[in-house]
Amino acid sequence: MHGLYVGLMSGTSLDGVDAVLLGIDDGGMALRGHVQWPLPATLRDALDALNRSGDDELHRAQLAALGLADCYADAVAALLATTAVRAGAVRAIGAHGQTVRHRPELGYTVQLNAPARLAERCGITVVADFRSRDIAAGGQGAPLVPAFHRAWFGRPGEALAVLNLGGIANLSLLDAAGGEVGFDCGPGNTLLDAWVQRHLGRAYDAAGAWAAGGEPLPALLASLLADPYFAAAPPKSTGRDRFHLDWLQRALDSQPAASPQRVQATLAELSARAAADALRAHAPDTVELLVCGGGACNDDLMARLRRLLPGVAVHDSATRGLPAQQVEGAAFAWLAARTLAGLPGNAPAATGARGPRVLGAIHPA
Q1: DSSP string, 47-64
Q2: What is the secondary structure of 186-248 as a DSSP string?
Q3: Same CATH topology for 3-141+326-363 and 146-320?
Q4: CATH topology classification for 3-141+326-363
Q5: For residue 69, what are the contacts with CB-CB under 8 A and spacing of at least 6?
Q6: Are 103 and 109 in contact (CB under 8 A)?
Q7: Could you tell me where the DSSP H helices lie in 84-217?
Q8: Orientation angle between helical segments 190-200 and 260-282, nearest 10 degrees
Q9: Would you kindly state where each structural domain of the chain is located, as residue ranges?
Q10: Can the peptide bond before residue 115 be classed as cis, meaning omega within 30 degrees of 0?
Q11: Over 80: is that where the pLDDT of 231 sits?
Q12: What does the pLDDT read at residue 11?
């Protein structure tokens, strides 16, 4: 596994591409560089629309995949330029792709990508399609980060939880004996971002300031938390094809009229409650929670987590050497290294797969 690897992640929040350069050697792993690359507004809109059925989906999906691969290639070029690393020095790119449908109960998941185009443009081997093999083995295909969380954050004899607050939130529960489980616990930023875009025309609620200025609506919160997903036992995973504004609107239709700001506060409380409830239910003895993903930058969301988990030290993942926005990119760089080495990348206790599997398809340079 020794060498340099690039990890690319464009998450369900559609807020851009994170490109991470990861070095792996006998001493372990080290970050060598990171860039954030914007998604063009037209591409972001196209990807968002593909989470729902519509006309000419196949054609639109292929065009979006090509556009995304070009964004990935531009992000890689910027990363290599800022780190003064030649393409030939990178062993592989781990490119997750953009999830637009996730239906493991039906045996499939769709991550838009054009890995052959990416390999051609970058001149670097690309590893992609990480989730399909786990699903073929009876798993959810997600989350795939718990094993990486163990590799980076885990310490012998210590229990720890890691919460990724991306568009969708997922928990990794690392026990003191060296095992790891994980699951998607509910929406992270996706509903918050969508609601603020609709009402304020902003890409996101900076620091959660708008939500912090409103009071959650108890009846609406209870209606949202009644969704069967929250009570379902792991392994489980979800996506924007379940948690979206139409899902929210169905609950709003049965509630008295409310100000948009109070709805935003309710959505923030929903994201925090779903994560806190899941942690208490499945790892009640947890004393430390590391938070990563864009939600770690949301002061209001972090404050809600601390209020709901009074006995738990809630920290940004940077406290253990990996900044919040770089965790998932680093994870897919690590998974690409595992694939090239012929080593499994999934955690069957997290995904529910029948056993460890080597993940991903390799597209040579």
Answers
A1: HHHTTS--TTHHHHHHHH
A2: EESSHHHHHHHHHHH--SS-GGGHHHHTS---HHHHHHHHTSHHHHSPSS----TTTSSHHHH
A3: yes
A4: Nucleotidyltransferase; domain 5 (3.30.420)
A5: 113, 114, 115, 117, 118, 121
A6: yes
A7: 115-122, 132-136, 146-153, 190-200, 209-212
A8: 180
A9: 3-141+326-363, 146-320
A10: no
A11: yes
A12: 79
Tokens of 51: 């989470």
CATH homologous superfamily of 146-320 equals ATPase, nucleotide binding domain (3.30.420.40)
pLDDT digits (tens, 9 = 90+) for 247-289: 999 999 998 889 999 999 999 999 999 999 999 999 999 999 9
What is the helix (H) or strand (E) element at residue 24, kind and residue range?
A: strand 17-25
Token duo for residue 36: 């954030």
The pLDDT tens digits of the residues spanning 41-64 come to 999 999 989 988 899 999 999 999
d(CA 33, CA 29): 12
Q: What is the pLDDT of residues 341-361, one digit of tens each?
A: 999 999 999 999 999 999 999
